Amino acid sequence: IKSKREIELLKIAGNIVYETHKYIKPFIKPGVSLLKLDSLAEDFIRSKGATPSFKGYEGFPNATCISVNNEVVHGIPSNRKLKNGDIIGIDIGAKYKGYHGDSAWSYKVGSVSREKAYLLEHTEKALFEGLKQVKPGNHIGDISNAIETYAKKHNLGVVRELVGHGVGNNLHEEPDIPNYGKAGTGPILKEGMTIAIEPMLNLGTHKIYILDDDWTIITRDGSPSAHFEHSVVVTKDGYQILTGDDNFG
Predict the structure, then answer these.
(1) Stretch 221-240: mean pLDDT, rounded?
(2) Is the peptide bond before 175 cis (omega within 30 degrees of 0)?
């Protein structure tokens, strides 16, 4: 549970992440390289008096994780250029005065297939189904179950090995927040907790594997994957998003 001062710093960090997403979104189009997007994000984060949370984290080389099509998460930005019809997940973290904001969003590149549009729409909606369960007295399992139930209803594979997490002066804190599970189980939410909820859903099987770079995780069957994440604080009657529009609201 975070103090009022800590929550204020987490709001600023979260807002920087949100603004970074807004800043780079217009650059996401066919022909742009992943490294260009990464460098735009890093420069913007630093211009706000923050540092990129991911750069150097357990040896990760870049400021952002950028994952394209069948890449689930933790893609390393390269000279690869985006093509019309790609989908791209961008995970951004910013550290401000010792506290982290963390949010991932998935985007269309040009015009995408109906299947990819369906995946993006319902992965984003799954995030908000999970968020509806965030209030004091509810369990982590209530969030997990809401995401899994929604994903299954829409025939999407739920990645099981990767989870949401607490967020604070460490990028990843307790508790883990799986995107599947049983309602009424797990830690109980209390006012002042700060957590990152992040469904990662696949158009095909939930199975994944990790590439030789020891970072990039891809779907085992080659199907597209999407990733949406917000950091939130538990309030007395629900939650406030730290990495979105209603920050400072």
Answers:
(1) 98
(2) yes
